Structure prediction request, 225 residues.
Amino acid sequence: MKTVLITGANKGIGLEMVKQHVNRGDKVIAVCRTPSKALQATDAAVVSNVDFLSEDFEKTLLNQIEQISSIPHIDKVIANAGIRDFDNYQDFDVKAIRNQFEVNTIAPLRLIKALDALLTEKTRIILISTRVASHEDNTGGGEYGYRMSKSALNMAGINLSISLRHRGIAVFMLHPGYVRTDLTLGEGLIDANLSAQNIIELSDHLTLNESGSFWHAIERIQLPW
Prediction:
């Protein structure tokens, strides 16, 4: 049994990852702002009222984790929470772009730093990125805030992999596939349960040797930067 912390756990891919980790016997810490009925129906330990736009979400997070018994360390962290705005060159909102950087880029970095004392050798950190963050793969443009913030997340992940490698902690950036969720307005090629299954399986098999790499979780190939 492993201890897994998952953010954005109340719906979509996050909820499916919670269910699948619980079903295989892992102890799950499910982090969200407002828990859904579906999340509350699982056996996960729910940490709620965590708003990644707040100045001190770390305090809310750690205070609740401390109340959860028998959490000596965390074996896997899945930073899944994210926001997306559909903007373009003619029409974008600067505040919305800043918010996407706060939630998609800075919050995962703050999250890992806050959990540092609970990370141990062989901890795996999974940052849920996106294929549209790839510079080389960008042929469509648009989505300025989302693309930029997730591309910056990839750089944060590379930095973390370098900073934590000597402790045996590996960091990976995973594209979950084009998934039918609220984030994609219900559009996509696969459902959240299949995406979650592939993320979990790939993250179980990646090793410290691949730390700092960017993967397509469904196709199991590395993506270009």
User: Anything to note?
Assistant: The two ends are 34 Å apart (CA to CA). The chain has one domain: 3-222. The beta strands are 3-7, 27-31, 45-47, 74-79, 119-128, 170-175, 213-216, 221-222.
